[in-house]
Each structure stands twice: as C-alpha cells, then as structure tokens.
Design a protein that fits this description.
Elements (H helix, E strand, L loop, with lengths): L2 E6 L4 E8 L3 E9 L1 H4 L7 H23 L8 E7 L3 H17 L4 E5 H7 L19 E6 L4 E7 L3 E7 L5 H11 L6 H9 L32 H13 L8 H29 L4 E5 L6 H10 L5 E4 L10 H13 L16 E3 L6
Parallel strand pairs: 1-4, 4-5, 6-9, 9-10
Antiparallel strand pairs: 1-2, 2-3, 6-7, 7-8, 8-11
Helix pairs in contact: 2-3, 4-10, 5-6, 5-7, 6-8, 8-9
C-alpha cells in the first residue's frame, strides 16, 4: 500500500490530498480564494501567492488529520510544478520540498495538465485505469480558465499537444462575459445557471476557427481555439441593446444561453474532429469548465459509438490535489522521483512523458 500526499497550488486553490495506490482518495482538502479575487473579476498572481502562503500549512495538516495518518505513514509527497502561475506554484513547491526533507520522503513533481486528465481516473469508482491499453491512443480535452487544449496520449508513453487556444481560454471567455455583464466571479457557474432560462438560438455568435463563417480554416489552426472574437461580439451586442444595465431578464438570459452555446459548440466540434483525425480509442473531458452541465450533456450526446468517453467527476474537474496524488502513484511505482532542483514552469511543454509505457 502506497499513501501519497498530493499538493496543488497552481492558481487560486490551495489543496492537499492523501491518495492510496492512485485510486482511493483518503482525504481531499481545498481552500478556495474566490472571495479574495472576486472584486477584481479574475485571479491576481501576487495575491494568490500570499493566500497560498497562509493556507498551505493548515490545508496539509487537515488532509493528514482527515486521513488519520502522520507523515511517517506516507510513501511520497507529490506537488504540481507546471504549468501555472509561477508565484503560486512556488509556494506549493517550496512547502513540498521542505515537507519531503523533514520527513525523509521522495519528491514527485506533477504536470498539472496531466493531473487534470487523471481526474477522470482517480476514485475507486472510476470505470477505467489510466494505464488500460484499451484506451490508447487517447484524446484529452483539458478545458479550464487557463487552458483550452487537446492532447493526444499514445501507447509509447508520450503526450502531444495538438491544439490549444490562441487567445482566451474557454473559462476565461466565461469570466470576461460575466464581468462585462456585471454578474460576478467566477463567471462559468453564474452563466450556466442563468443560461438555463434563455434560448440558445436567440443570437448567433461567431464560432472562430471552425469554418462556420465560410472561410476555410488554416491547417495549423484546425484544432486550435480562439474565443476573443466571441467576447468582442458579445460586447457589441450588449452595446447595441443599450448597455448591460438596460437588458431585461429575458434579454440577459438569451444572450447568455446563446453565448454559452457558441462555446459548447466549438469545443465539441473540435474535440470530435480531432478524435477522428488521430483515430483515438477514447476521449476524456476534464478541467474546470468540464463542470458545465451543457458541455457535459453535449459531449455525451456527440460521442461516436466506437469511442470510449470519460468525463471527470465534477469534484475532480476543478483544481484539487487528489488528481495530483493519484497520478503520482505511477511515478512512485517506477521510482521516478525528482530532486530539490525541481523548478516551476509557467507554460505547458509541447510534448510530455507519461509515467508509463504500454509498449
């Protein structure tokens, strides 16, 4: 039995979890900073780092307490080291390194991106194991406030970034729309709730880089995303309607429903186009925006019968440490540990090694 402490601090959640053998979540603690960043309509990196500094010790202590263990019971400590906000990442990494030294534990650095993908595999009730050969090659759609990317994972233990956003991520598009309409932060959950009252075809918003406007998409952008034009289109529409404060409830609901529909439509169109192009056997939907009910429903509706579809449980879509500690079990099995020179990285590498190979 391997008990691994996972630590996550890549953005605005301070999280710690204890995971047994990569599957059973023994404890999972998350301290949110939403109230701190809400007045600004987005995450302020320096403020996030200060909040992590305050929360990291109590969060880790609570995770150990909830698990009913002491550091002596742990097999390793895992921490997110990339990608993310560097000031935020450094808080979690520094704490994890000190914890590892103080308790004579090996250190495992985890790619936050792969962690999100593992969110579909953590938990005893997960239908598949991450290293199940039946799933590969696999396409993962990682959709969050900071990322909208398509990653192909292959049996030889490689992951390849085949599509990403050229400007705003999907979650960022939700947040900026909510800020434009003075709805609050984070925008995704608010828009999802209000959009249920509106008509998805009340307004036609652009579907950039899909060819929907009649302009062919350049081959290099076939699986890339762009949501900045969508945001601008909403801005002009609201201006033409007299401004956000002049919208009736019905007008607001219709704007939001149509706006959300455009995001969901683009995401699912790109996901399943890429799945066909790369001849994958499975598709994973994960990341914070994967909590969106409209996206989850459309994703499940459009899955071809020949594909295995996995959607991460909502509690493991948003940033959490269970996905970090769970994924770390694969590195622990092979003894793939990191030294104290492990560094933070803001961006995602184009190609990343998986913790196993099926060949």
């Amino acid at each position: 039995m391997a008990l691994i402490l996972g630590i996550e601090s890549s953005c605005d959640e301070t999280a710690a979890a204890v995971v047994e053998d990569g599957r059973r979540v023994v404890s999972n603690v998350v301290a949110s900073q939403i109230a701190k960043h809400s007045p600004y309509g987005g995450v302020i990196p320096e403020l996030a780092a200060r909040e992590h500094l305050t929360a990291i010790g109590p969060v880790v202590d609570q995770a150990l307490k909830d698990a009913g263990i002491t550091p002596a019971d742990l097999s390793a400590v895992a921490v997110t080291h990339a990608p993310g906000l560097v000031p935020a990442l450094l808080i979690g990494m520094t704490y994890a390194k000190g914890f590892a030294i103080a308790n004579n534990l090996p250190l495992i650095g985890i790619n936050h991106f792969l962690g999100h993908i593992y969110g579909a595999f953590v938990g005893e009730d997960a239908p598949y194991r991450f290293d199940d050969p039946a799933l590969y090659p696999m396409l993962a759609a990682v959709v969050s406030g900071g990322h909208t990317s398509l990653v192909v994972l292959t049996p030889d233990g490689k992951s390849h970034l085949v599509g990403t956003t050229l400007d705003d991520a999907a979650g960022e598009a939700f947040d900026k729309a909510a800020k434009l309409l003075d709805l609050g932060y984070p925008g995704g959950p608010i828009i999802e709730r209000l959009a249920k009252n509106g008509k998805t075809d009340a307004h036609h918003f652009p579907r950039s880089l899909t060819g929907a406007a009649g302009k062919p998409v350049a081959p290099e952008n076939r699986f890339n995303f762009s949501f900045s034009g969508l945001k601008t289109s909403l801005l002009y529409l609201v201006r033409d309607m007299g401004g956000a404060d002049k919208l009736s409830e019905e007008q607001l609901y219709d704007c939001l429903a149509s706006y959300q529909e455009a995001i969901v439509d683009v995401l699912c169109t790109k996901i399943f186009d890429a799945a066909k192009q790369y001849r994958v056997k499975s598709v994973v939907l994960c990341g914070g925006v994967a909590c969106n009910g409209a996206l989850r429903e459309r994703f499940e509706q459009r899955v071809p019968k020949n594909l295995i579809a996995l959607t991460a449980p909502k509690k493991y879509c948003t940033d959490n440490a269970a996905m970090i500690g769970g994924l770390a079990s694969f590195y622990h099995r092979s003894g793939a540990y990191n030294g104290l020179d492990l560094d933070a990285q803001a961006r995602l590498p184009l190609s990343t090694e998986l913790p196993f190979s099926l060949r």
